[in-house]
Amino acid sequence: MPDYDPENDPSHLALRFRDGRPKIHQSASTKGCRIGEHVEIAARVTLRDVAVGAFSYFETGGEAAYATIGKFCSIAPNVRINALAHPLDRVTTHKIAYRPNEYFRWRPVDHAFIDARRAASVTIGNDVWIGQNAVIMPGVTVGDGAVIGANAVVTKDVAPYTIVTGVPARPLRPRFDPATAARLAALAWWDWPRETLFDAVPDMAELTIEAFLDKWEALQPSRSTSRK
Ligand SMILES: CC(C)(COP(=O)(O)OP(=O)(O)OC[C@H]1O[C@@H](n2cnc3c(N)ncnc32)[C@H](O)[C@@H]1OP(=O)(O)O)[C@@H](O)C(=O)NCCC(=O)NCCS
């Protein structure tokens, strides 16, 4: 009788996936959000009209509004995504001029201001790491695989696989050479079904980036039908 191989036992394999329901801390607020599988939202995070892709996580105290966030993003404590721009051209920058309803009856919220804010949404790609206290300004797009340094203020789009730092954020260096970045973008491993991810995880840790790409490009894994 052959040795028992748990990796080939269907009942064992069925157990390899943990519960994918998002974990949202009770002190977090997620109004109008779409939240993917395996997402973690830590304590005191406030999200408003945000789509968060599968496996992405917000650490304590983060805040995002009117944003789309890809899969596998790591968002450090106290990050601000789409930091509100108060109006600069009115008599006051104070919210009395756009949310007077908070103080007075018969003085409604300024819908044009809210609509303009929604239109300046932020897009964060897949596999983006945002360092502690970083601020991403309205209308910015951050490409797949980019890294935002701690305390950066990102005022312009960030190209894929680029590390930016500082105030205002400037490219520090590419994360990979252009050919490797292009191969990763084509592989789009973040869209693989969880069965494939389960198999690939040891290689993510153990292989060099070149060896990983050589092996997994040759295997040509399918994309998941789930785009969450
Ligand atoms: C941006 C970052 C990823 C760069 O890492 P790295 O490539 O290993 O960078 P190095 O330490 O080699 O530093 C390279 C240069 O960038 C500078 N630098 C690094 N991080 C910086 C930052 N956040 N802001 C400004 N400058 C920074 C360094 O001083 C150094 O400058 P020099 O060449 O003039 O000496 C990293 O420094 C960072 O900010 N990580 C985020 C950490 C964090 O917030 N973790 C929270 C837990 S999720």
TrEMBL record:
Transmembrane segments: none annotated. Keywords: Acyltransferase, Repeat, Transferase. CDD domains: LbH_XAT. The keyword Acetylation does not apply. InterPro entries: Hexapep, Hexapep_transf_CS, Phosphonate_tfrase_rpt, Trans_hexapeptide_repeat, Trimer_LpxA-like_sf. Gene3D superfamilies: Hexapeptide repeat proteins. Belongs to the transferase hexapeptide repeat family. This is DapH/DapD/GlmU-related protein. The lineage of its organism: Bacteria, Pseudomonadati, Pseudomonadota, Alphaproteobacteria, Hyphomicrobiales.
